[in-house]
Amino acid sequence: MYLIGLTGGIASGKSVVTQRLASHGAVVVDADVLAREVVQPGQPALEDIVRAFGPGMLQPDGTLDRAALGALIFTDPDRRAELNRITHPRIRERAGELIREAAVRDPDAVIVHDVPLLAETVGHWPFEYDLVVVVEASTETRLRRLVELRGMTRQEAQHRVGSQATDAERLAIADVVIDSDGALDDTLRQADELWAMAAASAVSKRPE
């Protein structure tokens, strides 16, 4: 297998790149999807969240009130760290399971581990990446996307951007940088080039 760790700040265009790689045949393990799975009703992480943050974090049907939790953690670094301590070990464990399963199914698989907070958690994942890819867009572009495409106020968008690693911290771990500040076609072209390189590398890693 060939394992890519793919990251980027919120609204950087990371999802566009991930979807393009998936269309070529990459297996995607999405940390955001796993983060939602581990807090489903009946999961230990949800019970821990209620103990830590109170029953106000639940909606009437017993599911997590993501808006209420987000409003709390994106303005309070200490509470955000507390949430991460609850969820991150469970997300890492599940990601490891899925990656191992994909490698068994297809030894030549290109696996994309999509991790928004990779720069913040590098070294904590139970596997090594063959390549770390950072999808990059300017702060102003990302703020504009959050306001125009996700309906946030500019202040909300600034809180979200500010709660993540800096551009410099992400770039420090990058083997490859995809610039998504420009036209969509240009971002897709860079993703296609990444796929061609990764697919060839996966085959070359195959044991003799």
Automatic annotation (TrEMBL):
Gene name linked to the record: coaE
Protein family per UniProt: Belongs to the CoaE family.
Major localisation: cytoplasm
Pfam family, one: CoaE
Gene Ontology terms for molecular function: dephospho-CoA kinase activity
Descriptive protein name: Dephospho-CoA kinase
Function: Catalyzes the phosphorylation of the 3'-hydroxyl group of dephosphocoenzyme A to form coenzyme A.
Localization in the cell: Cytoplasm
Catalytic activity: 3'-dephospho-CoA + ATP = ADP + CoA + H(+)
Organism whose genome encodes this protein: Antiquaquibacter soli
Residues annotated for ATP binding in this entry: A11, S12, G13, K14, S15, V16
EC number: 2.7.1.24
PROSITE patterns tied to this protein: DPCK (PS51219)
Alphabetized InterPro entries for the sequence: Depp_CoAkinase, P-loop_NTPase
Root EC class: transferase
This protein's UniProt keywords: ATP-binding, Coenzyme A biosynthesis, Cytoplasm, Kinase, Nucleotide-binding, Transferase
Pathway(s) per entry: Cofactor biosynthesis; coenzyme A biosynthesis; CoA from (R)-pantothenate: step 5/5
